[in-house]
Amino acid sequence: MTNPPEDSAPEGSAQGSAPSEGPAPKRRPQQRKQVLLRLDPQVYEALARWAGDELRSANAQIEFLLRRALAEAGRLPGGTG
After folding, report:
1. Is residue 68 part of a domain?
2. Long-range CB pairs of 71-75, under 8 A, 24+ apart, other chains included
3. What range does the domain containing 45 cover?
4. Which residue, 42, 72, 76, 47, is CA-closest to 59?
5. How many domains does the chain have?
6. For residue range 21-79, what is the model confidence (pLDDT) as tens digits?
7. 6, part of any domain
8. Region entry Disordered: which residue ranges (predicted)?
9. Can you give the pTM of this predicted structure?
């Protein structure tokens, strides 16, 4: 009779499902700040077309442009990009 490896769990146990096991991988925070943004309709249409050309949503395009502008200005906080 052989013994199971020490790191194996008995059948039906929930090994590996506990959130406290080991450090979690670093990811972007799931909670995003929600902001109401009022735009001129023509500006929005141009933005939406540009976003579509780059296969992004309008929201993702706005965030992309804001991040790029912040980086160029040297104002992008560390760990946000």
Report:
1. yes
2. none
3. 41-72
4. 47
5. 1
6. 666 666 666 788 999 999 999 999 999 999 999 999 999 999 999 999 999 999 988 76
7. no
8. 1-35
9. 0.58
